[in-house]
Amino acid sequence: MKILFIVDFYDDGQLYQEPLLAKKYIDLGHEVFVFTSHNTDVFKYIDEEKIENKQLKIYRGKNGEKIYRFPYRINLLNRIKSFPNLTEHLKSISPDLVFFHDISFNMHEVVNWKKKYKPNLKIIMDYHADYSNSGKNWLSINILHKVIRKGYFHKFLKHIDKIYPIVPEGIRFLKEVYSIPEKNMELLPLGVDLAKINEIKDKTDRKMSRQKFGLSANKIIIATGGKLTEIKRTDIAIRMMEKLPSNFHLVVFGKAFTDEFGAYLQKLTEGKNVSFTGWLNLEETIELLLCSDIAVYPASQSVLWQQSIGCGLPVVAGDSGGQDMEYLNRHNNLVKVNVENINPEYFAKTVWGIINDQERFVLMKEGAKKTVEEFLDYKILALKTIAL
């Protein structure tokens, strides 16, 4: 089967859904093609600066996928975007499945090509928006979503075989804002490459990995990180360390979105058992999580919730509003912290309660393993999307 992704951002070196699904499709024997932009900066994922490259670039990605990087034909305020004429590339590839990542203003080209050349083409779409990350003001919800995107999307809705929101709140958002029937949707959570995690686990030594990251072999290691923005509330994880015994150590991986915010976080660590690794690639992130004991994410939805579960860690995560992660807590492997309890004292108490109760700690780790095997392995997710 030939599978085509159409997505604004694609980075085959990170733990994001699109490259991990692409890898799994290829592992299953399919061909994968990616239509995307020239943007490869994760910190400009939403509000990217103007890309100066005006040429089409075609090359093979790390997993063997064929990547087409287009300049945008239209880019209005980084909210309404479309690639230039895709029809000729659709003709040359002749995909069997087109996978849109969110609503694309190139849908009309794919649908028209389907009707004219390939009526049996399957079209699916995942959806990443919900009330916590979109529709933050009247103009956004009532004009951008309810008028512009909804009006465009409904013209092609009958041609979409399945819509896959990545979180339960996304289902609610599409029902209430876009009037999408629930029967058209199915949850497709962000997942993990279990085979890759097991491969890294088999070839690394936990003690050596800790040495590599400057971590003690005898301390309880708490992992947190990602794109360090203010809404992640990494400061809470750092201040939490004041409340924990000296044998606990927090390792922060990732990069601050500004130098000023990075300096602020560094200042907070003075006198605390906290270290920073900087930005890590896919393999390094997995290796760090595998040599940690527990993961903490004070606020804001993150794919690192799933990656931490995939590495067998108990997870403590804050729901700062509209980001309920209980769907990931299938075997008591995760503790959700409600918004009113997102503070250093509560996180410290929760982490201490897990680590100090060996039976609970072991059961949470076993629960994480079961959750991945049943629900989050990208092999399972990939097979779901092609079994239409």
Automatic annotation (TrEMBL):
Residues 21-195 form the Glycosyltransferase subfamily 4-like N-terminal domain. The keyword Manganese does not apply. Keywords: Glycosyltransferase, Transferase. Residues 206-370 form the Glycosyl transferase family domain. Its EC number is 2.4.1.345. InterPro entries: Glyco_trans_1 (IPR001296), Glyco_trans_4-like_N (IPR028098), Glycosyltransferase_grp1 (IPR050194). The keyword Aminoacyl-tRNA synthetase does not apply. This is GDP-mannose-dependent alpha-(1-6)-phosphatidylinositol monomannoside mannosyltransferase.
